[in-house]
Amino acid sequence: MPVEINNQTYYRTSETCMKTGISRATLFRWLKAGLLTKSYRDRRGWRLFTEDDLKEIEAEVNRVETQYTSL
To answer: Which residues contact residue 41 at a Cβ distance below 8 angstroms, ignoring those fewer than 6 apart?
Structure first.
């Protein structure tokens, strides 16, 4: 269930993974790689994600890389 703090909706890690269709391991790997530039945490130190963060993650999920290979 999302958390609302100061009229801003935040999603916990498990909710973020479910909404974006990625695993927890992938999310943490992308965080470590710097995919998301800002980070929010609750009083327990758990990560929180905004709608904008979810959009950034979804954009990465849907990103397509082009690679050229010789035949």
So the answer is: 47, 48
Angle formed by the axes of helices 13-20 and 24-32, nearest 10°: 100
Q: Provide the greatest CA pair distance for the chain.
A: 56
CATH topology of domain 3-61: Multidrug-efflux Transporter Regulator; Chain: A; Domain 2 (1.10.1660)
* pLDDT tens-digit series, residues 12-70: 999 999 999 999 999 999 999 998 878 899 899 999 999 999 999 999 999 877 777 77
Q: Specify the amino acid at residue 12.
A: R
